[in-house]
Write a structure and sequence with these properties.
By secondary structure, the protein is α/β, with parallel strands linked by helices. The chain has one domain: Maf protein (Alpha-Beta Complex). It is built from six helices and six strands, in the order E-H-E-H-E-E-E-E-H-H-H-H. Strand 1, helix 1 and strand 2 form a beta-alpha-beta unit. Helix 1 crosses helix 6 and helix 4 packs antiparallel against helix 5. It is elongated.
Length: 168
């Protein structure tokens, strides 16, 4: 089975591989395809993040010209809920018959101070790495920060949700 990934990110490759090992019983090969998401570097809504994932899945089929079974696009972004930004991951799966399925992770709220800094124009990636080193974070807060940094849990959830939809 040939699986395209609309990214050359080693982290995304590893996350997709781990997810597919749990979802597939057959052998597969992941081919990374260098593509642009076509959206802002820091998407500030789930809808824009969703479009970025779809763009990556679709653009991978053109960038990595050839037969494939599935093409994946993975994108992380933010969603504003009740005045506070939340972290979200989206996975898009384009099947070889051109049917696209999209899965979205749950929302992880940013710390209020981090959300305010994003609203002021800063990028989450730098902010959240600062939080990793803060004294006084409880275990749940530390886990949430690590999840935002490595995106493993969010992308795995989004991939699983998209996969379920793609099998209907």
């Amino acid at each position: 089975m040939i699986v395209l990934l609309g990214s050359e990110s080693g982290q995304k490759m590893e996350i997709l591989r781990g997810s597919l090992e749990n979802l597939l019983t057959e052998n597969f090969e992941i081919i990374p395809c260098p593509v642009d998401s076509g959206i802002a570097e820091q998407p500030l809504s789930a809808a824009i993040t969703r479009q970025g994932a779809i763009n990556r899945a679709m653009r991978a089929t053109k960038a990595c010209d050839g037969a494939y079974d599935f093409s994946f696009g993975l994108e992380a972004g933010l969603e504003l809920v009740d005045g506070l930004y939340h972290f979200v991951c989206v996975a898009a799966i384009l099947r070889s018959d051109d049917i696209c399925s999209v899965g979205i992770s749950g929302l992880t709220p940013l710390p209020k101070a981090a959300s305010e800094r994003v609203m002021a124009g800063e990028y989450l990636s730098g902010i959240i790495r600062e939080y990793r080193d803060w004294e006084g974070l409880n275990d749940a807060e530390k886990e949430a920060v690590e999840d935002m940094i490595n995106r493993r849990r969010g992308f795995a959830e989004a991939i699983s949700n998209a996969w379920g939809e793609s099998q209907i």
